[in-house]
Amino acid sequence: MSTAIGQEGNNKQQTVAVIGAGIIGINCALELQSLGYQVTLLDKEGIGSGCSKGNAGHFATEQVFPLAEFSLLWQMPKLLLDPLGPVALSAKHFIKAIPWFIQFFNNMRPTLRDKNKKALQALNKNAISHYTALLKAAEAEHLISLNGSLLVFESNDRTKVEVMYLHYLTAGIAVKLLDRTQTLELEPNLSGNINYSLYFTDVAHTIDPLALSKTLAEFAMCKGMTFQQTAVTAVTQSQTGVTVLTDQQCLHVDHCVIACGAWSKELLKGLNYQLPIEAERGYSLSLPISATANSPLSRPVASAERRFIITPMENTLRLAGTVEYAGLNTPANYKRAEMLKENAAFILKTLPDSEEKQEKWMGCRPSLPDSLPVICQAPNHDKIFFALGHQHLGLTQGAITGKLIGQLVSGQTTEINVEPFCISRFN
């Protein structure tokens, strides 16, 4: 193993604590361990046990448009009032969420929205190629399927579909507009309700998000990384390095990467950084597929009107989506997972019918009001780095984030400009 010299310029192997064992933290730990650092990965739960377990499994590189857009203002009342709708806002949480929504609305301004879009385009551009290289090295290429995805429309208004098609095309996204016949040729099990689709040819999906996380973590462990299941309560920096206080010990390291998603706010507050992060809760419902049955789909299919996605996985069909603003600790409302199946009945001709082993899941997406993650060296702490707030794109941006963190920690020039992702934009 090579010795990580890092920015200090000495010959002692540098140590790094990575806090958060979701897909972002795992990728950061793997990259740093590969660069020769001695990495300790820390998490209060198991590896990949949060959003990295129950997500849609979609490497959504086509999603380069920030969520804050003016058209959403007129849609919100309808979305919130629809019992099967994709958005819910807890009355109890509303007051707490007001400052976040003010910043969210501010990011609808065309100049900010365009700036944020360009940053997302840069981050997503090579996101999948970084994964394919990692999975090839880990001998786990079977976990990723490069089969594209569909965005389907029940609407028969071709003009609106063409507007969206051109929207993606002008953003540099590889996309084809398909009519009903062409769509059904790709996915015969789609319902007759479907009139058009956008076929994103360059995106991918994984057959098992949890297996992906665990495989990359095991690959990092083979290189020497260690994992500790422990809760981190504070992080401080001194002249000699970083102290990570856990519920079991004080860990002294040369560098620290904070990558604990929606749970990052308190750790950053202890370092005097403001982080306007919202726990945007998403739900999924996994339907088991009989060993003797064929998968109902061969690629992810998202519904433009119903705003959810169906992904074929190993032995399951996963229905995922919805947005719920209710905070980190409110009990899950699994009716929101169950309604995904009701919506799926409008998209597919047939669904797996076994109800015995259906798995309901809820996870907290770490969402920031500008739809950009925080990927940076802490402005006032040169030994601490942030990799958090990837909202709906944590899985998609995991490998590229790990690469960028490796470059930041080791003092290399980053392969893309990371200035738009600095936490200074909130401080």
TrEMBL record:
Keywords: Oxidoreductase. GO terms for molecular function: oxidoreductase activity. Residues 16-408 form the FAD dependent oxidoreductase domain. One of its GO terms (cellular component) is cytoplasm. It comes from the Bacteria. It holds the Pfam family DAO. The keyword Lipoprotein does not apply. This is FAD-binding oxidoreductase.
